[in-house]
Amino acid sequence: MYLRRLRDLREDHDLKQKEVADYLGIQQTVYSRYERGYQNIPLEHLVKLADYYRVSLDYIFERTSEDK
């Protein structure tokens, strides 16, 4: 599943993939696969990222343009 907003959120917060990967406790290459849609991201990581960026999961999944 390709989640374009993961990259957008990361870049909006001026973060590198390595920094987000470290926050999630994974390798940068794994996080890169998440962003590019080559590997499914576990729900626990999605929830953690939504909390970190203070957005809803619906926003990450592009079900809404409202980030809250």
Notable features of this structure?
68 residues, mainly alpha, 434 Repressor (Amino-terminal Domain)
Short characterization:
By secondary structure, this protein is mostly helical.
How many beta-strand segments? 0
Q: Roughly how many Å apart are the termini?
A: 22 Å
Order of helical and strand elements: HHHHH
Number of helices: 5
* CATH level-4 homologous superfamily: lambda repressor-like DNA-binding domains
| Helix-strand makeup class | mainly alpha
What is the CATH class name?
Mainly Alpha
CATH-scheme architecture: Orthogonal Bundle
Helix content class: 55-70%
Tally of distinct domains: 1
Give the percentage of residues in beta strands. Answer: under 5%
The coarse silhouette is globular
**Largest sheet properties:** none
CATH fold assignment: 434 Repressor (Amino-terminal Domain)
Cα-based radius of gyration, to the nearest Å: 11 Å
Mean pLDDT: 93
Task: Indicate the low-confidence ranges by residue numbers.
Answer: none
